[in-house]
Amino acid sequence: MKATFTIACRGSWLSLAQAEIFKKKVQTVYPDITITVNIVETAGDKEQSKPLHLVEGQDFFTKEIQDSLKNNEVDFALHSMKDVSSVDFFNEGQYAIIDREVMNDVAVFNNSVLDKLKNGEKIIIGTSSPRRSNMATGFLQKALPKLTDAPIEVEAIPIRGNVDTRLQKLSNGSYDGIILAAAGLNRLLQYAPAKEKVSDLLKDKKLMVLPLFECPPAAGQGAIVAETTGSNIEAVAILNAIKNTQLTNAITAERVYAKQYGYGCSQQFGVFHAATPNISFTYASGKDGADKAFREWNFETALDLKGKQLFSSTDYMKDFFTYDYLNDVEIDEAVKLYFISSHKAVHSTAITEKILRKKVWAAGTRTWYELAKKGIWVEGCADGLGFDFLHSILQSPLINISNNDIQLITNSQSKMHWIEDGINAAGTYKLIARLPDEIKNIIADADIIFWTSFQQYQNCSAFIKTTVQHVCPSGKTAKLLTAAGVQPIIFPTIKAFIDWRAKQ
């Protein structure tokens, strides 16, 4: 094998950071190989005056790089996967998905956004993506803290430039906030030439990591792909050695939807593939080419409703419990972040004032929206996939929070389960069982039961059939049911079950 190979990529800090990741992965397997970098200027780099969705064509950031590979000027071409629009990309040549960062988009705000919210002024967001414009603006109107009686108005206007350029435009006051891929920020915060400047530009900014289901990312967002030609046998061997099969399968699943609904910067939908310890799935939503809204899930389940009586607790959520709100609660003010399992956990002014001093994350968007109504800035959520799903996001350079820095705020029954798992938790309310007899009778007759919480199961376990098939969402409920000797059929989320059931 030759000693030196050449890689083509763009000249932005982010592209060069991704080239460093490629180099390290190659040198882990082939420590004696040297990788040199050829910087290629792409059409997307040259045309900065228009939003990309108004520029004709596709592959604005990849074509010239791929051309240098086809012309045998380099051994490898390196891209951000979301920039690759070619329908036949996976059918031609040799490629390797080598890395993937956090998939979420993130909204970065100037601190002055709080004053504008208090004054009822319009919030100006910078993004050139129709997907981000449509989804994120609608989401932010519900997710930004309600600091006045006036409705929150959010407007998206175009922004172009590399990540650091956009952050500089934000700092200059051209926008109240901008939307970026969290992956790019995380990589720049780990890339020595960019780290200091990007860290300085993020200083004193407020963040919102946008939820995956309400604001799904572009297909392949956060992934790095390297390609070579089939005739370059040594380069093919290198790619095969560093290829990540699990990531490749995930990206392939996402690009099924991109092939169906369209590639490029003009698309108004997002898609992601995710895996929990219990189930993997693909989710896509947005608008298709005819401007029609859609939402689709793709996952496997063994659940069969034919001839069976189903009870879903989603139909009776208000009937299971009443709540005893506790005021004498020890909130740990030494932590950096509070994870709120339900908006019911923040039921007093005293609790609200304490959590306002720290970062706040939520279990899902319903909790997020209710906290926002209380004037609380929520930085992100677990998308209803469970607290453990957040580890990679919270521990990433952008957020930089470990489990030791977190207190989970929940009900007093759930508190004990979290403490058993080594998580700092506080219970601010008690669940008081109140299930009416008529609902108990329905549950007792059911062949299949979908639980949204372990406490529901505990309160009904004495009178359900021994043959009943239990079903639940992924996360803590699935973990506790399994620990109790139940083998549930697991869905990604409560919403996934509701959508699946509606199609049966």
Count of separate DSSP helical elements: 18
The proportion of residues in beta strands is: 15-25%
Structural class: alpha/beta
Radius of gyration: 24 Å
Q: Total strand count, please?
A: 23
Provide mean pLDDT, rounded.
93
Distance between the termini: 56 Å
Q: What is the 3D form? A: globular
Largest sheet: 6 strands, mixed
Low-confidence stretches: 53-57
**Strands across the major sheet, in which order?**
15-20-19-16-17-18
Percent of residues in helices: 25-40%
Protein model, in words:
With 504 residues, the protein is of the alpha/beta class. It contains 18 helices and 23 strands. The protein has a six-stranded mixed β-sheet with strand order 15-20-19-16-17-18.
Summarize the structure.
The protein has 504 residues and is of the alpha/beta class.
List the helices and strands and how they pair.
Elements: E1 4-9, H1 13-29, E2 34-39, H2 43-46, H3 63-70, E3 76-80, E4 94-100, E5 105-109, H4 113-118, E6 123-126, H5 130-143, E7 154-157, H6 163-171, E8 177-181, H7 182-188, H8 192-202, E9 206-209, E10 223-228, H9 233-242, H10 245-261, E11 268-275, E12 280-287, E13 293-298, E14 310-312, E15 321-325, E16 337-340, H11 349-355, E17 359-362, H12 365-373, E18 380-381, H13 391-394, E19 406-411, H14 412-420, E20 425-433, H15 437-445, E21 448-450, H16 454-460, E22 469-473, H17 476-483, E23 489-491, H18 494-502
Parallel strand pairs: 1-2, 1-3, 6-7, 6-8, 14-21, 16-17, 16-19, 17-18, 19-20, 21-22, 22-23
Antiparallel strand pairs: 3-10, 4-10, 5-8, 5-9, 11-12, 12-13, 15-20
Helix pairs in contact: 1-7, 6-8
